[in-house]
Every structure is written in C-alpha cells, then in structure tokens.
Specification:
It is built from 10 helices and 8 strands. By secondary structure, the chain is α/β, with parallel strands linked by helices. It has one domain: Alpha-Beta Barrel (TIM Barrel). Helix 2 packs parallel to helix 3 and helix 6 packs across helix 7. It starts with a helix and ends with a helix.
Length: 224
C-alpha cells in the first residue's frame, strides 16, 4: 500500500486509552505511538489532558478528552466544568456521553440542553456525542442522533466501549442515514482489527475510536 493511503487511513483513528488504571508511562507510550503513526487524535480522561497536550505540541495531532465518562449520568454543570477545564488544559476535541437515562425517560429537553451546554463550553472545538447504542432501541438511537444534530454536535458516536456492547455495522448505517452527510459518525467499542475498522468506514463511519490503532496499522502494512 502506498504511504499516502496508509497516512489517509491513519487519520480515521482516534488513538484511545480510557482505562482507569492507565499510568503516566502508558499515556506517554500512547502519544509516542500516535506520533509514529500520525493518528487523528489521542483520547484520554481529563486527568491526563495537560500531559497529552504537552507531549503532542507541534505534532498536528488533536488532543481529545472524554466528558461525563463512561455513564453520562453526571449533571450538565459537571459536564460543562469538565469541558471548560479540558479546553483550558489543551484539549481541542471533546467526546461527551449522552444522559442515557434521561433519553430513555423521554426527557428530551434535558438531553438537548445537556449537549448544547457542552457544545457552547467547547467552542470553537468539535463535540462528539456518545449515544451508547447498545443500551438503546433503534427508535431511541434515531432520536438521540437527531437531538445531537439539533444541539450543534459535530459527530455522533456509537459507544464508550465500557458498557454492554460496542459498535455494529447496522448502527453505523442507521446513524449515517439519520444525520446525513452534515455530521460525522464515529465508530467505537470492540474495533480491534483492520477488517472491522474497514467495514465500519465502508458503512459510513469517518472516525474510528480504538485502543488497537497500532495493531490495525500494522495489519494494513502487511497487506501492502
């Protein structure tokens, strides 16, 4: 495979480490891998944003922070404060978890405002809204995606990877159909090899969240 095509594929990947036991050494390795492979973004929990911003400075790789992670069940104010601090610490992408319980209770105004407040706190940077699709019916997935679109999010994202399931091809197709081409669709959760990542992209994803980015790129190189 041509190097240009390899680099193009690498830019689909958000290189991610959100495990609670992640150490400073783990984060340093994550950033080194991201620079070696020219991934789109490094995603970590709020505590490590300052370190990641320092390590990635000048690399052209985005600094991503998970907000309200992994349940989404914190208050809107908490999500806003997390977002503001993340931006101040150097983040320039935000992935927030939707309030799943509020959505399933059909408290749509709360869900919409929850996203709007984070979008406003993150400006001018992009917000991706994690729907946690494994916990939703198809009707709820559509409703959540439309609310995220109305609220000013730039992406809808399938999963945290910390719940009962991850990304599926059918969910990616449904979300892409729902939001059209105006929003991005991020597939995350259970994407651990090139074949799966490629299938998600073919189904309509334009970003892949994974902790297996290096493995995926190595598999791609072997196919060259």
């Amino acid at each position: 495979m041509k190097e240009s095509n390899l680099l193009k594929f690498a830019k689909y990947i958000d290189h991610t480490l959100l495990k609670p036991e992640a150490t400073e050494a783990d984060i340093k390795q994550l950033c080194s891998e991201a620079k070696d492979n020219n991934f789109a973004t490094v995603f970590v929990n709020p505590y490590y944003i300052k370190l990641v911003a320092k390590l990635l400075k000048g690399s052209g790789i985005n600094v991503g922070c998970a907000i309200g992670f992994p349940t989404g069940a914190v208050t809107t104010r908490t999500k806003v404060l997390e977002t503001e601090q993340a931006i101040n610490d150097g983040a320039n992408e935000i992935d927030m978890v939707i309030n799943v319980g509020a959505l399933k209770s059909r408290n749509y105004d709360y869900v919409r405002n929850d996203i709007v407040e984070v979008v406003n706190a993150a400006k001018p940077y992009a917000v991706k809204v994690i729907l946690e699709t494994c916990l939703l019916t198809d009707e709820e997935k559509v409703k959540a995606a439309l609310i995220a679109k109305e609220a000013g999010a730039k992406f809808v994202k399938t999963s945290t990877g910390f719940s009962t399931g991850g990304s599926t091809i059918s969910d990616i197709k449904l979300l892409r159909k729902t939001v059209g081409e105006e929003l991005g669709v991020k597939a995350a959760g259970g994407i651990r090899d090139y074949k799966t990542a490629k299938a998600m992209i073919k189904a309509g994803a334009n970003r892949i969240g994974t902790s297996a980015g290096v493995k995926i790129i190595e598999e791609l190189k072997r196919k060259a």
